[in-house]
Amino acid sequence: MISRSLVVTNKLGIHARPAGMIVDLTAQMKSNITFIFEGTRANAKSILNVMMLAVPPGASLDIEIDGEDEEEAFCKLEQLFNDNFNEEPA
Questions:
Q1: Going by C-beta distance under 8 Å and a sequence separation of 6 or more, which residues neighbour residue 27?
Q2: Catalytically annotated residues
Q3: What 3-state class would DSSP assign to 83?
Q4: What phi and psi values does residue 20 have, to the nearest 5 degrees?
Q5: N or C: which terminus of the chain has fewer CB atoms within 10 Å of its end residue's CB?
Q6: What are the tens digits of pLDDT across the range 6-65?
């Protein structure tokens, strides 16, 4: 299991479109992926769970990944976050 953090750097935070991109990516992974924000845990494969977190721009999001492709899953998530979900940076 790996546990790391990523910072949300796009201008609007994790709203519907970035949440959809996250779920599209995580659904392809075999590992269990959990996002943790301000003590609330969310299944990263559920768009409703991801949107429920309402992660604002500039916030740090803790990520736990457990499974056979955990490193690959984190690298892909990290790239998505680093690309600002193809939006303007904050």
A1: 45
A2: 15
A3: coil
A4: -65, -40
A5: N
A6: 999 999 999 999 999 999 999 999 999 999 999 999 999 999 999 999 999 999 999 999
Cα dihedral angle (73, 58, 47, 20), rounded to 10 degrees?
-70
Domain CATH for 13: 3.30.1340.10
For the chain, give the number of residues: 90
What's the pTM value of the predicted model, to 2 decimals? 0.95
* Alpha carbon distance 12, 33 (integer Å): 23
Q: Return contacts of 73-81, CB within 8 angstroms, 24+ apart.
A: 73/26, 73/29, 73/31, 73/33, 74/2, 74/4, 76/25, 76/29, 77/6, 77/22, 77/25, 77/26, 77/33, 78/6, 80/21, 80/22, 80/25, 81/6, 81/7, 81/8, 81/9
Per the structure, the count of domains in the chain is 1
Among the listed residues 55, 72, 54, 62, the one whose alpha carbon sits nearest the alpha carbon of residue 4: 62
DSSP category for residue 9: -
